[in-house]
Design brief:
binds adenosine monophosphate, HIT family, subunit A, single chain, 5-stranded antiparallel sheet, about 140 residues, globular, 3 helices
Amino acid sequence: MAQCIFDRIRDGDAPGHLVVDEADVIAFLDARPLFPGHTLVVPRRHVATLAELDEATASAVWDVGRRVAAALRPAVGADGAFLALNDEVSQSVAHVHLHVVPRRRKDGLRGFFWPRGRYETPEEAAKIAAAIAASLAPQS
Ligand code: AMP
């Protein structure tokens, strides 16, 4: 079994609420969301850092981030989104991941990644994951 938690989610060996499952990229809910709908966009192939990511996959990651950001408007009522990627420094999982965080005006977010909430139930998380997936524009 893979060591990397994101590889295990990809392989179905660890729980995850998938919102995108495409050829080169997957995306799933962050388990400790800044706000409900906070999504991680991840290259399917295990790549630890941005420097190791090939251009086509980097483009695919960014394109999925763009589409998830748009999907968060109808899915969770976001006004906008915050996209961020910790590359080595502050990167707690050694598999490239782009954070896509739904934002609302005056949502009180001051720092970047705190404080975190929790989903009340797996059902709540599943519902939000399904709403994002259903709101995604098709792959171009
Ligand atoms: P970073 O600190 O930028 O590397 O972000 C890593 C993110 O992965 C954090 O926001 C964690 O909440 C998230 N995370 C870690 N383990 C899991 C998991 N099993 N499922 C979903 N998200 C996770």
